[in-house]
Design brief:
The complex is a heterodimer of chains A (364) and B (162). Chain A has 364 residues and is of the alpha/beta class. Chain A is built from nine helices and 19 strands. Chain A is 30% helix and 25% strand. In chain A, β5 and β6 form a beta hairpin. The longest helix of chain A is centred in the C-terminal third of the chain and has 18 residues. Chain B is α+β, with helices and mostly antiparallel strands. A seven-stranded antiparallel beta sheet of chain B has the order 1-2-3-6-5-4-7. The longest helix of chain B is centred in the N-terminal third of the chain and has 6 residues. Chain B starts with a helix and ends with a strand. The chains are: A alpha/beta (364), B alpha+beta (162). Chains A and B meet through α5 of A and α1 and α4 of B.
Chain lengths: 364, 162
């Protein structure tokens, strides 16, 4: 069976940064990625990123992916396995993999799980009609393959993803007649909302989708205003003719492998569902298994990158690498993470992490 | 309300304006950033010292408008596309308005476009004075429009009509 010092699962912002941080300290890293390319969701992000210069502010997500992927590919300490899916992780920390369709096993001394998240969906009458997509699929069609998702597309969800994907659709020449949001307030950064609004896209807060209609595929949606108990208000129904409906109603951490590995888990709604208990250095209750990025709680890519750095540094330190610089580098990363979460938009994640740490501590 | 509709309120917009005398004196930055988010490229991109140092990355930007020379480097650096440059000294009845632009087609200098307000409504047909790529090479163009003075703080977007 092949061995590696550190296995990083997933090459999104967290996995790329974890690999680079651990390799810089001297650890030997194997990075596995299900897709044929590195970057995770970053490759579809055509908007400029927020944050500060250290988080690649004002750069577009796919450009950040290109930079980090290049650094990873050029790093002699990092072995990259693309088209590789992790199938399981067992008690003796043996990991089973499918590499280009062939079954294989690997025994890492340490693991960083940076598997990200999957999209939530919505149930409503005819929600299975062709033409109803998750926002991730729409982004993949448009930004990876250059295919228009539709001519006239309504969006459900005014969080960052819903609003950013709406903007990207406008850029691609798609008409976006409505963004529909059940919450009374827009969840996206208000600057994102303002920039789609001034292109003429109405944002309907306190509204929900009632049904989809169409014979062969989606032709029309019905949506309505809702009260504070989320019940539709009679007489407020509106109809829209659209050929595509895009759903962006949040993400859930992809945690199956953490469950299988025996990590202690807790259900924390603010973090998007079940997440692993972890130390401040992101080590789970199973020693030398770390989490970084959305798998540990739904947040922004900038935070995922810093978490990747923290997990990578600590994994390397546990393996005996870079001990002299560990403390300083960790302190810098922790400060960065705390400052990203410090404002009002970090409140949800702060509350979620507070609840998670109350459920059980993992010693650093 | 901004948090419900995506449209900032009139009062918010007015409070963000530099005082009248400064606006009349020449090009100056207008920052429509009303929510504390972790973001500071306006400050780090500015070479004039107009944006004051951030204590916390979540702070709202604070400006010393006297130091702004209207260079527009922050317009292309702002990931929220929330920064504009207005020059009310341009002409008696017209002002120059620079906006960030990330759509195709990129308008041509001299072309007439529709100036849109913060809700995407048509305000007036206006002429494109200048088009330049942003200094950050992010492909965000900065489009300068000649707008009637009374609409200098109403128009915030545009539509290419061909």
């Amino acid at each position: 069976m092949d061995k590696t010092e550190l296995l990083v699962v997933g090459s999104g912002p967290a996995g790329l940064k974890a690999s680079l941080a651990a390799a810089a300290q001297g650890a030997e890293v194997t990075l596995v990625e299900r897709d044929p390319f590195l970057g995770g969701q970053l490759v579809k992000q055509t908007h400029m990123f927020f944050g500060s210069n250290v988080h690649y502010a004002s750069e577009r997500g796919f450009k950040i992916a290109e930079k980090l992927a290049l650094a990873v590919e050029e790093n002699q300490k990092i072995k990259v396995l693309k088209n590789t899916t992790v199938l399981g992780c067992y008690e003796d920390r043996v990991v089973s993999l499918e590499i280009d369709g062939i079954f294989s096993t690997l025994k890492p001394e340490s693991l960083v799980m940076a598997t990200g998240a999957q999209e939530n969906t919505l149930i409503f009458p005819n929600c299975d009609l062709p033409g109803i997509y998750g926002a991730g699929a729409v982004q993949t069609l448009m930004n990876l393959h250059g295919i228009l998702p539709g001519r006239r597309v309504a969006m459900v969800g005014a969080g960052n993803i819903g609003v950013i994907v709406s903007y990207q659709m406008l850029q691609a020449g798609v008409e976006v007649p409505a963004i529909i949001e059940a919450q009374p307030n827009i969840g996206a950064y208000h600057v994102h909302a303002a920039k789609v609004r001034r292109m003429g896209v109405p944002i309907y807060t306190s509204h929900t989708i009632l049904s989809a209609q169409g014979t062969e595929s989606l032709e029309k949606i019905v949506f309505a205003e809702i009260d504070h108990t989320f019940q539709p208000l009679a007489g407020s129904e509106k109809e829209l003719e659209v050929d595509v409906l895009c759903i962006a109603v949040g993400l859930t951490p992809l945690t199956e492998i953490l469950f299988q590995a025996g990590c202690e888990m807790a259900y924390i709604p603010e973090l998007g569902g079940h997440v692993a208990l972890r130390s401040e250095a992101l080590e789970t209750s199973v020693s030398n298994i770390f989490v970084a990025g959305d798998v540990g709680g739904i947040e922004e890519a900038s935070a995922a990158m810093v978490e990747g750095t923290i997990a990578g540094l600590t994994a390397a330190n546990n393996l005996g690498y870079g001990r002299e610089s560990y403390r300083d580098k960790l302190a810098t990363a922790k400060l960065e993470l705390a400052s990203l979460r410090n404002g009002p938009t970090g409140e949800k994640i702060r509350n979620g992490l507070g609840r998670l740490y109350q459920k059980g501590e993992v010693a650093s | 309300m901004l948090s419900k509709t995506g449209v900032p309120e009139k009062l918010q917009v007015e409070k963000a304006l530099p005082r009248k005398e400064r606006r009349a004196a020449g090009p100056v930055v207008i920052v429509e950033c009303f929510q504390e988010i972790p973001c500071d490229p306006c400050y780090t991109s500015c070479r004039q010292g107009c944006f004051l140092p951030f204590d916390d990355i979540n702070d709202l930007p604070r400006m010393d408008f006297e130091k702004c020379n209207g260079c527009g480097i922050c317009v292309g650096a702002c990931p929220g596309l929330a920064i504009f440059i207005v020059d009310e000294s341009y002409a008696e009845k017209e002002a120059l308005l620079s906006i960030p632009w990330e759509f195709l087609p990129v308008p041509l200098e001299g072309e007439v476009v529709e100036g849109l307000d913060r809700e995407g409504g048509t305000v007036a047909r206006v002429k494109v004075k200048k088009v330049r790529p942003s200094a950050k090479k992010s492909n965000t163009h900065i489009v300068t429009l000649v707008v009637p003075k009374e609409y200098a703080h109403e128009i915030r977007s545009m539509k290419v009509i061909r």
